[in-house]
Amino acid sequence: MYVGRLLVVGPETAAYRVSSRSFPNRQATVRQDGETVTIEPTPDAPSSDNPYISYNCLRVVETPAGEATAIGNGSHVDPVAEKLGLGYPPRDALVTALHALDFEKDDYDTPRIAGVLGPDAAYIGTVRSDALLVREVDEPTLVATYEEDAPTAFEFDADGAETAARTAYDLEFEHAVCAAAATRDGEGFDVAAFTPE
Questions:
Q1: Residues 91-115: what's their mean pLDDT?
Q2: What strands lie across the sheet with 188-194, from one edge to the other?
Q3: More confident site: 3 or 24
């Protein structure tokens, strides 16, 4: 089954996977700061003016309450991270950014999906053409852009960010491209990306 981009959040892990039929030539790259993962075209990718294929999908930020991770499928990850840094509660940061940017205005009205691993709680959300859903989660929860477009409990067992990114990539959904993950590591987060060679 093809579910498009997907996200699994909670309570100690957040993992994101790019799945794509149209733009498979992309990679997940951990930036020099070690706290940001960017989805970007591979060096051999054909040029494109599509605004939805390159973005930060994961950012670790310092908040007044401690470190938090914002994760998602597009440009809304940056405003979620910025709101967290300003002291917004995770739920409010997700609602504000998802509401402001809305679903993607492409041929499919692609939903935006996002999550937060906060210092004390985990949240997942989506904005579709017909709904804005944000909820606190206390077990691994999946949301995807197609088919699985409402947060649902999901079995996801991974120890460490590298394993979580690889596990997300290997999920039994079609057209995997690359993945990223963050896991709690004491009071901070371990971050990893996976792109097959």
A1: 96
A2: 152-153, 141-144, 6-9, 13-19, 176-185, 188-194
A3: 3
Stated pTM of the model: 0.96
In the predicted structure, residue 51 carries a pLDDT above the cut 90: no
* CATH code for the domain of 70: 3.60.20.20
Residue 96 φ then ψ, to 5° = -60, -50
Residue 75 lies in a domain: yes
Please tell me the total count of domains within the chain: 1
User: Once rounded to an integer, what is the mean pLDDT over residues 12-16?
Assistant: 97
Provide the pLDDT for residue 162: 98
Q: Is residue 1 part of a domain?
A: no
Q: Is 166 a member of any domain?
A: yes
